[in-house]
Amino acid sequence: MSPEGFSQDIIQLGPIILALLLFCIIFIVYATAKWKLHPFLSIIAATYILALGTNFIGILSGVEGPIIKDIGGAINGGFGGIVTSIGLVIIFGTIIGKVLEKTGAAVKMAEVVLRLLGDRHPAIAMTIIGWIVSIPVFCDSGYVILSSLKKSLAKRSGVNVVTLSIALSTGLYATHTLVPPTPGPIAAATNLGIGPDGLFWVIVIGIIVSIPVALAGHVWARIVASKYTSTLEEATQTFEEYKQQFGKLPSAWAAFGPILVPIILLALGSFANFPVGTDAEGNRILLTSGFVNTLFTFLGAPVNALFIGVLLALFTLLPKRDEENLTKLMGQGLLDAAIIIMITGAGGALGGVIRATPIADYVKSLISDNAAFVGVGALFVAFLIAALLKTAQGSSTTALVITSTIMMPMLPSLGLDAMAGTVPIGQMLTVMAIGCGAMVVSHVNDSYFWVVSQFSGMSLKTAYRAQTMATLVQGLVGIIVVAIIGVFFL
């Protein structure tokens, strides 16, 4: 929503602006797939079409003044917001991946993981790893960190890299929108009035719902994504031939260190700030305080944690720290990261313009005076609002935050304030319904879509069929699971 809000006349233009947004999404797909226009330019062009078109619609409708008062500011804000939040994370993660790739560390990791889980189960290995990692870590960061492991497993096992890419991305996605202390679900729980005592139960039910959601993504990866190809696939060498070019491989500890240490630090940062109660004045009491909280918060910031991973990669994996490794190798990592950053930034610009339109207010107006949907039916209302917002503006976290804010005052009238003893089951299931909606769907205006597609070598067409449809399936499976639980408790 625009910071200053919108008048009722502008909100009534919501259906036309939604239609314009749909046109812009179709334009991006067509321009990229048919005209071969680079995704960065396609998205930026669509962003301007949406911004100018929205203001033109306002003029034709007699709205006084432009709907989007500062188009340049909205575009810069959206672009800068994404680059600020994930730019250095992508750079550091890409450098780590480049070092892991060039030193044979990723090959060593593949051997260790397959030794534990077996050569026959690389896809389930990626699903499980992603599911665990994304509980404390943003899915974007987790995918960047684990990208090299995914490629090595594909080489080691001979499994289609697109299969492993989707298994990893959907495993990460399942807990990203459902299980605190990931920021999205914890913010939604707080917005819906769940206090610190109830967050434990949100985690429990989030884990329960996320398991079938992750399995749905895994099944999609195995059955559907396996039909597609990637530019990352290398079928000319066996794994053993590929491994020989690295000579002596690093130890397992050295190989996993640049990945595991940042993940551990990110987890510490999340849990250090986990609320465990309130004081007499109503202020939150966190799990840690004082110097320990300051230290863990600093180390757990994604950019700090990944920079430590870069240092570990440089000092434990590189056989020589000379110009070849410290300049040329780093330069290769920066070049790889630059393309991804530009595309994700363009997606952020599109999201910034969408947030400057009355779409969120329009969706709220559709159901604000309708109390016919109660109980389980109301869970589908929350799901649909979050799905519309997610699909329209790209950010799962934003969809979680906005939808939970919209739903909070309507919980009693929709029968979503039910309690199971002292457990706020109605509010918890609402968080889960919103989280499932915030999965539907990941496409061109979502930074995660571009991270997955670009780090996996997928064309736009393949990414839509493999990644976007997988997130749709995950969201639908999730809301069905939530509705079944709601039948028994609401």
TrEMBL record:
Keywords assigned by UniProt, alphabetized: Membrane, Transmembrane, Transmembrane helix
A GO molecular function held by the record: gluconate transmembrane transporter activity
InterPro entries the UniProt entry points to: Glcn_transporter (IPR003474)
Bilayer-spanning residue ranges: 12-33, 39-63, 75-96, 123-146, 158-179, 199-221, 252-274, 294-317, 329-351, 371-389, 396-416, 428-451, 472-489
One GO CC term on file: plasma membrane
Residue ranges the record marks as coiled coil: none
Pfam families per the UniProt record, alphabetical: GntP_permease
PANTHER family attached to this UniProt entry: GNT FAMILY GLUCONATE TRANSPORTER (PTHR30354), PERMEASE (PTHR30354:SF11)
Full protein name: Gluconate transporter
Lineage of origin: Bacteria, Bacillati, Bacillota, Bacilli, Bacillales
